[in-house]
Amino acid sequence: MIALLPILTGIGTALRLPALVSSIFAVAMSVFGWFLTWFTKRTAMNLTIIALVSALALVNLLALKGILSGLSYVLPPGISEGFAMVIPSNAPACLSAVFSARVIRWVWEWKAWAIAWMSHV
Description:
By secondary structure, the chain is mainly α. The chain has a domain at 37-118. Helices cover 88% and strands 0% of the residues. The protein contains four helices and no strands. It has helices spanning 5-14, 16-74, 77-86, 91-118. Helix 2 (16-74) runs antiparallel to helix 4. The two termini are 60 Å apart. 1% of the residues are buried.
């Protein structure tokens, strides 16, 4: 029994460094995991807002094109040809871009903070 005592103290000394490395690694991984969770929530929220605003802009463009093409069927041919001389062919895209920019500005100024606050980011 006495002969095993120096071996046990040698094993205890040898295992001291891996235990220290293991505990430092556990603390580092805990901090890294918290940061990754925080970053993932924030990135997911921003990507969701960007996707919703982009979808809104696309729907706006399609609705404006539908309204203008519907007006071309209702208006008399002379008025429609007169508008074609004054209004460019890319007018729906331009008007949609202007309206979408205003909506995007409104969302980012007034609603983005509320969305982030409600999601507890």
